[in-house]
Amino acid sequence: MKILGISCYYHDSAACLIDSGTIVAAAQEERFTRKKHDAGFPNNAVRYCLAEGKVGGDELDGVVFYDKPLLKLHRILETFFSVAPKGIRPYLHALPIWLREKIWTHPQIEDSLAKLGVKVPKIYFPEHHESHAASAFFPSPYEEAAVLTMDGVGEWTTTSIAVGEGHDLRILKEMRFPDSLGLLYSAMTYFCGFRVNSGEYKLMGLAPYGEPKYADLIRENLIDIKDDGSFRLNMDYFGYLDDMVMTSKKFNTLFGGPPRPMESPITTREMDLARSIQVVTEEAVLALARHARELTGKKNLCLAGGVALNCVANGVLLREGIFDEIWIQPAAGDAGGALGGPLMVWHKVMGNKRTVNGKDTMGGTYLGPSFTRDETKAFLDAHGYVYSEQTDPAHLASILANEQVVGMFHGRMEFGPRALGNRSIIGDPRSPKMQSVMNLKIKYRESFRPFAPSCLEERISDLFEIDRPSPYMLLVADVCEKHLKRDDQNVRDLDIHEWVNIPRSTIPAITHVDYSARIQSVNAETNPHYHALIKAFEEETGYGIIINTSFNVRGEPIVCTPEDAYRCFMRTEMDYLVLDSFLLKKSEQPDWQDKGKWQEEFKLD
Predict the structure, then answer these.
(1) Could you read off the pLDDT of 508-534 as tens digits, one per residue?
(2) Which residue has the higher pLDDT, 406 or 103?
(3) Neighbour-count burial of 463, counting CB atoms closer than 10 A to its CB (0-12 exposed, 13-18 middle, 19+ buried)
(4) E strand or H helix that includes residue 316
(5) What is the DSSP-derived secondary structure letter of residue 510?
(6) How is the chain split into domains, by residue range?
(7) Mean of the pLDDT values across residues 75-94?
(8) Which of 519, 520, 491, 495 is nearest to 504 (CA)?
(9) How far is CA 257 from CA 1, 158, 188, 249, 320, in A?
(10) pLDDT reported for residue 595
(11) What residues form DSSP beta bridges with 414?
């Protein structure tokens, strides 16, 4: 039985195919269209999933859309009437879009699939947080678990606590709009000069530079967190109910001035605000987790929703020991709803049993397209690109050890926001200059942002203060003391560009200013190719760890095809490119004409 899942029309549209409960394929539409956070109907992702699953036009048994559009429209209308006439601007902005497309989701799905030659069977519409909860529990390695979902807002729900047992999943408690932990964090993201729905990662990365000086102001004025994890936002400080911005003038007054303009210099105010909202967010997550443990009595926890991508909070939650084990859906945001929806229908609606064997069923989240050797070779030959065939991991390890930056394109593309070795840019973590080089010459992004490590799973506790794998780069832990080089100077007196470049450990390129790292552990079974490379690097250098950042530049989605990878390679200062079994050296390639124009677009301080 083959079921197609779809999420779209808001941000990060995606598609997923499951076959008799097994996840066959999943991908975000942005990877195909090259439009960041593409919200349109995922035509390309659907086409890919059906092709990967060898599903003919009349072979689908069900289609699942990840939420209930009419219930979401009800929330928008009720919100407008509750604040009218003040909310007329967002209402007039949203209503035409709803009347033109979103209210017609059912017929649009039918029409879009018909254009792809797909006969449309029954269409299911679970609620948004049901899809999140299903994406967290059903692929998890647990027979039973508490499930916590947290995001901006679905239809009405912003936070839910559920319990999963076997193939059953029941939501026990919900919090409703406008009280939202995700929207609180996004409001501060906006205020600190970053883009909502994409800049939250930047705010999290900025937090260690600051002090929680505003935490009490946030607790006293913005959010009231109860012992059971429930909370209430003071809407006097927010603009998302009745305006086109996230914060109100009262918010500006509370924090000493207007929002930071985008791309303007970052000040200590933004650093301290980032740290303060991170601390308060962690407090709310911990309170919710404690209540979920009390409510469900389960020893395991599953997480999904956009807030579950806050890997710093996840690390704090793990160290608190509220639950014995934690599993986080790697595509925790809205794209993951395309995966959770069909799993909800397969298990709960259709009553099919789960098989649990102690491992998750995400397949390392390598669920996207791959390309054959012949396809890749044909692409290279057609354009006259210079390459050699190279499969020896020791050779590539020696290139990395010489501080060369490598674009890694191999196997199936990852599903979710993290590159996990198959669409990654990699480097030597021992190099003190590598973070600034990769930020400014490769990624064209803010220099304060940290890079994550990929380490051998069997070495994770030798390098970091953590006692379990972190396969999806969703946990932050401290670098082990034996690797640290602590500096007692007053770093807050330094410019942020100087601060970030102070070596803090024997692996400085992945050690953040608070001596932490966002870790990906690499398993030999899940990704043997990537594991073999890191193992070879260990044999070369003594360190079973490399830098891993996503294979893209600022403003672009992660690369999907060999053509995407080559274009990104030539437009940046990468030294080498791996396209499956082929190795390309930058200095040997034909001239690339638009390199200067590309770099001009990403000028940063």
Answers:
(1) 999 998 999 999 999 999 999 999 999
(2) 406
(3) buried
(4) helix 311-320
(5) G
(6) 373-600
(7) 84
(8) 491
(9) 57, 29, 13, 9, 36
(10) 57
(11) 366
